[in-house]
Write a structure and sequence with these properties.
The protein is mainly α. Helix content is about 65%, strand content about 0%.
Length: about 500
């Protein structure tokens, strides 16, 4: 038979027998069951007694039948649901049921509840239970008799019963298709909300809560298809947490989320999640100064040939990293792959969209930045100006970087007034919207400005002072303030 999700029966029986022989009491056996097999407390106490679900149901029904007004018609399925609660597939046991279970197992009601139960129980139930006296402890269960192998027709019947019991377990699930669909819709909403300038920490907190919800579901049991869907969602959510962490200048934490996202992508066996995870890890490596690692991640992501627009973004990221290394030839080759990926984009739309998509404006942001770094300054200026003139909705972090590219091109071409005009919307961003990648690009712009022949002019001096003040009030600096300091974050996304 396949292993039980909480440990094979023979392992539970062996543990119970060994601990009983060693003189351990039921509470100790129950706690070991919880720890070793990750059981909820009510299941652990039942297993400590060596009772099957049906045996426990029969005894609860007998106890209920002896009490007027609390009759319970329990079966194995109902006991299993009491044990799983407050999971989605569980059923809340009433205070009367918990009292009967405590009497059956010879323990206090409190020992049948963990913190998760207490949070989920209505206050009225807790109040009733806290005023109940503890039942008298029962004697330890007798040593289980040695198993006798069935013979003949009994053996055939036992095997059929075992198959039927396993089929019932395999068919059960703690999440339905509608729930998976809702989780996907909520993940899409978060990815779009971050682009729409929702407060980063608000999106981060919501993504964290949703990731934890998906993780909890994965600790339960569902159909293999649903398990893969949940792992894919967990991968996207960890990727979102990595992206926001990087935007707040926390690369170490971003890498941690990225590694977990990759594990989820592998467990889901999902090329789309693999590619977007590697794109996110490439972004983190680039802004942390690890250009070769950024290139490696981008190339690995592209090798999966995923559908949607991630192939375009991965080629853009590789070109950006090569350009920052001063490798103009490799950067131009990567730009060629950008166009090829754009032309050959195949398959349906991106699974999630929003942050996990690469539209034409985002692509132009990368290509103009690469052209600027590789010496095609006039081309970068013209393409950036044309993209900014289009009346399309775009993430303000991406637009800010495009404006910095345009301003840098104006400076190189000897037009500081044009640079000042291009940067006005960037300099006007509120501190909470000044994310780490934009701050890094502005510091780089200020350094280039100081090395130009017009660095001593009035306009350039004004620009340098404005950039210095802007960076002093950036979002990462606000994020690093101690608790209670003013300035709640409210911003969006940067590439």
């Amino acid at each position: 038979m396949a292993p039980h999700p909480s440990g094979a029966k023979r392992d539970r029986d062996r543990l119970r027998q060994e601990m009983t022989e060693a003189g351990c009491d039921l509470a100790q056996i129950s706690m070991e069951m919880r720890t070793r097999f990750r059981m909820r407390p009510r299941e652990a106490w039942r297993q400590a007694h060596g009772l099957t679900l049906q045996a426990a149901a029969d005894r609860v029904s007998d106890l209920g039948g002896a009490r007027r007004g609390v009759e319970v018609a329990a079966d194995a399925s109902l006991v299993a649901k009491w044990e799983k609660w407050p999971a989605c597939s569980g059923r809340k046991p009433s205070p009367q049921v918990l009292v009967m279970l405590a009497e059956l197992y010879g323990c206090d009601v409190a020992e049948l509840l963990d913190y998760e139960d207490r949070v989920a129980l209505p206050p009225a139930d807790l109040q009733v239970l806290e005023h109940r006296p503890a039942p008298a402890p029962t004697a330890p269960p007798p040593r289980p008799p040695a198993a006798v192998e069935p013979q003949g027709t009994t053996l055939v019947e036992a095997a059929a019963d075992e198959s039927a019991a396993w089929a019932m377990w395999a068919e059960s699930t703690n999440v339905g298709d509608l729930a998976c669909e809702q989780l996907l819709a909520d993940t899409r909403a978060l990815a779009h909300a971050y682009l729409a300038a929702d407060p980063p920490l608000r999106v981060f907190a919501a993504a964290r809560r949703m990731r934890d919800k998906v993780f909890r579901l994965l600790e339960g049991h569902q159909h293999p298809r649903q398990t893969r869907e949940l792992y894919a969602l967990a991968g996207y959510l960890c990727g979102l947490l990595a992206w926001i962490s990087c935007d707040l200048d926390q690369p170490h934490q971003a890498d941690t989320h990225g590694r977990t996202a990759w594990l989820c992508a592998e467990l889901a066996d999902h090329d789309g999640v693999r590619a977007w995870t590697l794109s996110t890890r490439s972004k983190v490596a680039l802004w942390d100064g690890r250009m070769r690692e950024a290139i490696t991640h981008a190339r690995r992501g592209a090798s999966h040939r995923p559908p949607g627009t991630v192939g375009i973004l991965l080629a853009c990221q590789e070109a950006d990293a090569w350009a920052r290394l001063g490798a103009a030839g490799e950067a131009e080759e990567a730009l060629t792959r950008v166009e090829e990926a754009h032309t050959a984009q195949h398959g349906p739309d991106d699974d999630i969209g929003g942050l996990f998509s690469c539209d034409d404006f985002r692509r132009a942001n990368y290509t103009t930045g690469v052209r600027l770094r590789t010496g095609s300054v006039a081309t970068a200026r013209d393409e950036a100006a044309a993209a900014l003139a289009l009346p399309t909705r775009r993430a303000y972090g991406t637009e800010a970087q495009m404006r910095i590219t345009l301003a840098s091109a104006h400076v190189v071409l000897g037009h500081p007034e044009g640079a000042l005009e291009a940067l006005q919307p960037v300099l006007a961003l509120v501190p909470e919207q000044r994310l780490a990648p934009v701050a890094s690009r502005l510091r780089e712009f200020a350094g280039d400005l100081a090395r130009t022949p017009v660095s001593g002019g009035r306009v350039t001096s004004h620009l340098q002072a404005a950039v210095e003040h802007w960076c002093l009030e950036s979002a990462p600096r606000r994020f690093a303030l101690p608790p209670g300091a003013p300035g709640p974050l409210a911003g969006g996304v940067a590439d």
